[in-house]
Every structure is written in structure tokens, then in C-alpha cells.
Amino acid sequence: MLQTLHQTAGVGCGMSETLACLRWSVLLGLSVALLWIPGAAGSALNCHKTCICASNIVSCSKMNLTAVPTELPPYTVVLDLSYNEITRLRAEWTHDKLDKLQNLLLSHNGLHFLSSEAFLNAKQLRYLDLSSNKLRLLDEYIFEPLAHLEVLLLYNNHISQIDRLAFTGVNSLQKLYLSQNLVSRFPLELVADKSRLEKLILLDVSSNRIKALPVAELQALPAWIKNGLYFHNNPLVCGCDLYSLLAHWYIRKLNSARDFRDDYQCYLPAPAPAKTLVGVFELSSDYMNCSTFKQTDEEAFLEQTLTLSCDTKHKDMSKTWLMPGNVVVSAGINQTARVLPDGRLQISPVRSEDSGNYTCFAVSEAHNETLYVVLKVHNFTMNAGGDSLNTAYTTLVGCLASAVLVLIYLYLTPCRCFCCPDRGKKGGDDSIHSSMISVTPTHDDPALKAELDRHVAFIDSKDLRGQNGKLNPNGDEEEPDEEAGMLGKGRRRRSVAESISSVFSDTPMVV
């Protein structure tokens, strides 16, 4: 061994230099041995050359690193190691516990090995990015230490096997991205089993190799889970159950069906030509004649007679109606609802409890369709709403008529003392031609005051309903009050505080 080291170093040792050569050989052997220690290739963190350190963020992206730098600060919260050449993440990638590390980014590294103890020193992780690597399988309990993990990115790998216990212990996980892999089995245990992830709101298994889905189990999931369940761009086999599943989701306006509507495709089964790819939402046409789904919205009032239409695209179809709560409409059970001979549903009289979703199933020998009607019942009768509106207009017409009568009385009533010789005009030569309306009497003649008193007009406020004794003489239009209109309380008028001389004010008007 000693001779081999001497030859390797190219050093010849004489008898007098044996001790020195021995020491040099031992040091060289130790150095070679250290190169084979796993993890020893990682150099110490250098925030000036290999990484960028900004407070509690350490970014070592695109530095051609083959191992995670050692001596990471214990206060590190974000560690970015993306776009490097780290192919293996061993248990000893960090010797110190990083109790404050929350975000770990390892994407685009060619990573193909994860140790089962890789995250023991980083248990506080909330965001883990392992996307765009070369991972092939996920072993059991591999993520178990990450009890606080919320987002896990595993897309764009080569994952073909996922152990059923791989995500055990990750109870805080909310979003899991598994798209663009080689997964052939839908991981139903993540969303349906008793041990499912309770907080998971997004599961993306799109662009994999899944051919069949557990449709019945997926249909039974809560809407908040189905809203974030993505499985488009998979080689699914066409079937009416698949169309029914996505059609229901689309009607419910779930993001998983609406956002990628055109990306849900499937292969037609035999006897169709091999590998005939069609859109799932096209299966209601001539491809498989699956039951179609439509939805309309209707509004009604209390005590109204309402007829709901089941407008199918084919004639002579047998129609069955379901009321809210999946109650079948049949004779003798639903006294207010009955199916007419043409297949329409008549509800008379409409009650408040009739609000909800109605379903019409139309079936024939060659076709079948399903239509949905969402009914909203207002909590008042149609006549009550009309009466309120008519009362408002009646009040307005009455006020205008009163104004016309007052003007006729003021200007068209003949003066009985107009031709009296002793009733000459004094002072300002007041007359109805020179002063149409005088707010305050300005005459000093007692006889004239007595005559004027005969033409003083007072408008009783009780005859002006809803006007508070005031009318805007400028003819401003009313401002409709939507809330008052719904409740049958008439209309709201603009403030007339700026009006100087209102003909309906409490101040006496003299002519």
C-alpha cells in the first residue's frame, strides 16, 4: 500500500527519508479517503461567491452545485437551490437543525434519490419544491416528518409509483401537484379514505397515464374538494359516467371542470377506430349519445301559477320530474306540483318552500336528456308588488291634480271688487299681473288687507301624503328607491330644502 502511494505521487524515498515519506503518504491516504465520505463534496457556504444571502434568505440558484452547501445559518427561512446539479438528497445534507426553514426549492436539479430521513432536520417546512427532477417513486413515510407542510410540488418528474403511505403524517398539506408524471393509478386514498388529507383543497394529477377513474367515489366527494381536483390530459376511456361526472361539475361551476373544459378528452371504446380521441363534453352528441345536461333559471312569486318547461332536443320523450330534495313528482303526493301531458311541470300555488333545483329526466328508446331548473321564489305576491307601484303613481297623480286646482283657484277666479270705484290701487300698484305670488303681505291699507285675507290659501299637510307639505317646483324627477320598491313602500323624493318659495309650504300665499 505504501509503495503504491509512493508510485502514485511520483516520489522516490531513500532509507534516510523513510520517516518523511511515511508521514506524507498517510496524509495523502486520508485525503483520498475523505473524498469518498458521502456529503463531503459540499463546500462551506460562501455568501460572497457561491450564494446570495439577504437577511434570512439564502439563494444558491444556478451555481453548478453538486451538493448542498454546509454551515447554513440556523436562521435561514428560505433556501433556494434550484437549477443546480444536486442529484441525491441524503439524510446528512444538513448537519444542523434548521428549525426556521420554511421554503426549500430544489427544482431543476436532476434529483433522482430522496433519503427517507432527508427532512428530519427541516421539520418546519411549509413549501417544498421538488419539481422538474428525475424522481421515479415515492416511498412510504418519506414525507412523514413534514407535519407543517402546506404546498408540495412534484410535477414534471418520472414518478410512476406512489406508495399508499407516502403522504402519511402530512396532515397540513393543502396543495399537491403531481402533473406531468407517469402515474397510472388515481390516488383516491388522498381524498376519499378515512385517512385522507383533511386540509387538501387541490390535487393535480393531470397529464399522466390514468385510464380509469373511480367515478362513483369522486361524485360523492364534497364540492370543495371537487373544485380543486384536476385530471385533464389523461388517456381516459370514454363513458357516459365520465361525461355525467364532468357535466355535473361544469353546471356547478367548479373550477376543475370550467378552467380546462377543452382539455378533458378520452378515447372511444370499440367498435370505434382505435385511438379515436374526442372531447368528453362532446359525448352527448352522436359519439355515445350520453344524457345531456342543461340548466335554466326561473323566478316566481307567492301564490302564482308557474309552469316549468322540459325543452328537449328530441320529440316524444318520457319525462320525469324531481323536486328539491330529490322528491319524485307523482299524483297524490305533491299537491301543488303536477306533470302536464306535454311533460311540463306546473306548480300552483307557488310557495316559499318551492325554491330550489328541479330536474327533468327525458328518456326515449334512442336518446336521453337531463335538464335542470333553478327556481327562486320571492317572498311576496305579484299583486302586492303591483299594488305598491300603483299606489305610488296614484299619489303622484293626486298631488299634480291638487296643484292644478290650486293654480286655477289663484289665477282664474274672478275678482268681485275689480270694478269698484273706491278700490283704487295704491303704492306699488299691486295686481295679479305684476306679482304672481307674494310670500309676505306688504300692504298697509286695512281694507286691502281684509280683501287679501279672502284669497289666502292654506294647504293641509295631511292631504299631501308622503310629501311632508313640500313639492319641488322645478319639476325634478323622483329618485327610485329599489329597496323601498321591493318592500312595497313607494318612492323616495329628492330633498326640496333648497326651494325658496314652495307653493305647498306652510307660509300663506297671497294674490
Automatic annotation (TrEMBL):
It is found in: Membrane. InterPro entries: AMIGO, Ig-like_dom, Ig-like_dom_sf, Ig-like_fold, Ig_sub, Ig_sub2, Leu-rich_rpt, Leu-rich_rpt_typical-subtyp. One of its GO terms (biological process) is brain development. The chain crosses the membrane at residues 392-412. It is a single-pass type I membrane protein. Keywords: Cell adhesion, Disulfide bond, Glycoprotein, Immunoglobulin domain, Leucine-rich repeat, Membrane, Repeat, Signal, Transmembrane, Transmembrane helix. Residues 464-511 are annotated as: Disordered. Its main location: membrane. It comes from the Eukaryota. Residues 475-484 have a biased composition (Acidic residues). CDD domains: Ig. Residues 273-372 form the Ig-like domain. One of its GO terms (cellular component) is membrane. Belongs to the immunoglobulin superfamily. AMIGO family. PANTHER family: AMPHOTERIN-INDUCED PROTEIN, AMPHOTERIN-INDUCED PROTEIN 1. This is Adhesion molecule with Ig like domain 1. It comes from Gadus morhua (Atlantic cod).
